[in-house]
Write a structure and sequence with these properties.
The protein has 477 residues and is α/β, with parallel strands linked by helices. The protein folds into 2 domains: 307 residues, Aminopeptidase, CATH 3.40.630.10; 165 residues, no CATH class. It is built from 12 helices and 21 strands. Strands 1-2-4-3-5-9-7-8 form an 8-stranded mixed β-sheet, with helices on both faces. A 4-stranded mixed β-sheet has the order 13-12-11-14, with no helix packed on it. Helix 4 packs across helix 9 and helix 7 packs across helix 9. The longest helix has 20 residues.
């Protein structure tokens, strides 16, 4: 049986040595994806059964490193016994979960392919901040940003990571995060779907062997991502932050690689980005195992475009709207936000104007040129609805054609509060609020949720409802 297993591994080993491991990983990803983690919001209780299940696998060694402030366990999953030690940790920030999902995909892969990394000992700490993850928040239970606690070690989670790094004296460290989806690769309209950084260990940003090795691995990972998200890789600023874990772990002698998962078009749950994490991390580990990274020139690291912040969810350009007897021509940048319900289980999307004016140097995930479209301020439907059945009887497209963008209820039905419709739904109390209308407010305002209609030849083309765009053009039907 052992001989058979060895023979089965030979083709894969030679395949990876030819530099094609990433292609195989990408093509076969669905075979290893952990299907129980299908959305970016999950909690400690969702991963605990998965960790317990790994205990039954001879491949893995599970060690509880300690507990969080609210007494949730923090575990380390280890595999292999090679000389080179690699430590990977995720969800230091509770609302940055993409790499945690990828870790469990990687565990499924390693169950069958652990021999590939026989030169390594791999250690994974998924969900370092389980209390933050419980409420999908960045900080821990007492409000500390763990990634700024490397020196003071005020939090138990910080001490756990520091102790793990010190006890292992890891050769390589992967610091796994999520970044804003509004980062773009500098001077392009491409989102920085993945951003990398070999953190500086001093203010002068010197490069020693430890940091240089991290840079080389990053170049390898960038080459891989370019195959599947061309032009969508950024390089994080390497300004030294003396309190940060990445900077200090680099300083302590572990070649540290920061991976930040950003945005990708039509991937709100970050499932494709999760796949990119899986492919690039496993490929990087393979490169470390074979020492392939040693042949990569460091200068390639600085060729990766820097991160910029020039992206919006929606960019409208050439929008002309009237105010106080004059027309004004502007561009508008709208970013979406999640409005979460009380149970933290459901949410709706609204959009806020984050910038307006000349946005010629900015980009959008979605773009609308309003040059030949007419701006129309919406009206409130005159009939106050009493229940959901009244709402279902309405033809929303007809109402929009008549210029109505808002419907009021006597009492908002629970079943529609966290739904997005191509018409604004409010409670009657929201239109009874008295305002000083001595000088009317502009129809669109910076920092507000815009609602209006764009028409052409009296036909509705686009409807913007609280920042969400609904396309009614013939092309979209």
């Amino acid at each position: 049986m052992k001989k058979l297993l060895f023979l089965l591994f030979i083709p894969f080993l030679s395949y990876s040595q030819q530099g094609n491991i990433s292609e195989t990983l990408f093509a076969q990803y669905e075979n290893y994806k952990e299907t129980s983690l299908a959305k970016k919001k999950f909690t400690h209780s969702d991963i605990t059964p998965l960790i317990e299940k790994l205990k039954s696998e001879d491949t893995f060694r599970i060690k509880e490193l300690g507990t969080s402030i609210q007494n949730r366990s923090i575990s380390m999953i280890s595999i292999g016994s090679g000389k080179t030690s690699v430590l990977l940790w995720s969800q230091m920030h509770g609302n940055e979960s993409t790499a945690t999902m990828a870790m469990f995909d990687i565990f499924n892969y390693l169950k069958q392919h652990e021999e590939i990394f026989k030169n390594l000992t791999l250690h994974f700490i998924p969900m370092l901040n389980p209390d933050g993850a419980q409420h999908f928040k960045r900080r821990n239970a007492i409000g500390i940003d763990i990634n700024r606690d490397a020196l003071s070690l005020q939090s138990p989670e910080s001490k756990i990571l520091k102790d793990a790094r010190d006890s292992l004296q890891a050769d390589f460290g992967f610091n796994l995060h999520d970044q804003s989806i509004y980062y773009n690769a500098e001077r392009t309209d491409k989102p920085a779907t993945i951003s990398y950084l070999a953190p500086a260990y001093d203010y002068e940003k010197n490069i020693n062997k430890t940091r240089g090795n991290a840079m080389k691995v990053i170049v390898e990972m960038n080459n891989i991502i370019q195959q599947y998200a061309p032009g969508q890789v950024g390089r994080y600023s390497d300004d030294f932050e003396p309190r940060a874990f990445g900077d200090n772990i680099q300083k302590w002698g572990t070649s540290t690689i920061l991976i930040e998962s950003g945005g990708y078009h039509n991937d709100p749950e970050k499932q494709f980005i999760r796949k990119l994490n899986y492919v690039s991390i496993l490929s990087a580990i393979a490169s470390i195992s074979t020492k392939k990274y040693e042949t990569i020139p460091i200068k390639k690291y600085n060729e990766i475009p820097r991160n910029d912040t020039k992206l919006f969810d929606l960019k409208l350009k050439n929008l002309s709207f009237p105010y106080l007897g004059k027309d004004y021509l502007v561009d508008i940048g709208i970013n979406y936000m999640e409005v979460i319900n009380k149970n933290n289980q459901d949410y709706k999307i609204t959009g806020i104007i984050r910038e307006m004016g000349d946005l010629s140097t900015y980009y959008g995930y979605e773009n609308i040129d309003a040059e030949n479209l007419n701006f129309k301020i919406g009206k409130t439907y005159p009939t106050i609805l009493s229940d959901i059945d009244d709402f279902k009887k309405l033809n929303i497209k007809d109402l929009l054609n008549q210029g109505y963008t808002t419907i009021a209820f006597e009492n908002l039905p629970e079943e529609i509060i966290f739904e997005n419709y191509p018409i604004k739904i409010i409670s009657i109390k929201d239109i009874l609020i008295t305002r000083d209308n001595t000088i009317p407010r502009p129809p669109i305002e910076f920092g507000k949720k815009p609602t209006f209609i764009l028409t052409k030849n009296d036909e509705v083309f686009y409807v913007i409802i609280e920042g969400n765009v609904y396309n009614f053009t013939e092309e979209a039907k």
